[in-house]
Design brief:
This is SAP domain-containing protein. It comes from Candidatus Magasanikbacteria bacterium RIFOXYC2_FULL_42_28. The chain has 197 residues and is an all-alpha fold. It folds into three domains: 3-44; 53-136, no CATH class; 138-194. The chain contains eleven helices and no strands. The longest helix is centred in the N-terminal third of the chain and has 14 residues, at 31-44. It is flat, with a radius of gyration of 21 Å. The chain starts with a helix and ends in a 6-residue tail after the last helix.
């Protein structure tokens, strides 16, 4: 497989993991991490030798605002979720991709990040954050989002099924892995049973 062939296909994370194992590459990390690793191997024949961060978590450690993610062995788990929820006075919070991205950047730059900094990221509206490499790998999610936003798709009975059928056509083609209204016409026979018009 060459670089062009690899980039022309949409890969699911499970497929990237299998490729990493096949090429004897490290198979942990985000989709973006796996893609970069495989591309580096395809282009240059080299393997990165990064090591997983080992965490020695002290079970008796009390999480506080100044607790540090790596130094104190924290992870995105129920303990951290409970602390942040209690601090914010809400029933339950969900960790965001921007929080995870900040932790990955801190790890890459050999820095640390506090719980207070993670809370600040959680409270910041999404539109303030630039697109990340990981966002670019979420083509299926973006495809469904754009399909649902289109005024021309409101009459479809099973929107997710319709989007999935169109996605299969796009995924297996050399086209951009993006939704456009032209796909409705191009694949009208394939999706006509879901159209209520």
């Amino acid at each position: 497989m060459n670089e062009k062939e690899f980039l022309s296909k949409y890969w699911y994370k499970v497929e990237l993991t299998k490729l990493c194992k096949k090429f004897c590459l490290q198979a942990h990390g985000t989709k973006s991490d796996l893609e970069k690793r495989i591309l580096c191997f395809i282009k240059y024949g080299t393997r990165s030798h990064e090591k997983k961060v080992k965490r020695n978590f002290d079970k008796n450690h009390q999480i506080g605002l100044q607790s540090k993610f790596f130094t104190d062995g924290l992870s995105f788990n129920d303990s951290l979720r409970s602390f942040i929820s209690a601090h914010l006075g809400v029933k339950k919070i969900s960790f965001t991709k921007h929080m995870a991205h900040a932790v990955r950047i801190a790890k890459k730059e050999k820095m640390d990040i506090t719980v207070a900094e993670l809370i600040k990221i959680l409270k910041t509206p999404k539109h303030f954050f630039p697109e990340t490499d990981e966002d670019k790998t979420c083509q299926w999610n973006n495809f469904v989002r754009d399909f649902n936003r289109s005024k021309l798709t409101h009459n479809f009975e099973n929107k997710l099924k319709t989007a999935a059928l169109l996605w299969q056509q796009v995924r297996n083609s050399k086209e951009d892995k993006k939704y456009s209204d032209s796909l409705l016409k191009k694949h009208s026979q394939l999706i006509k049973k879901y159209n209520n018009t």
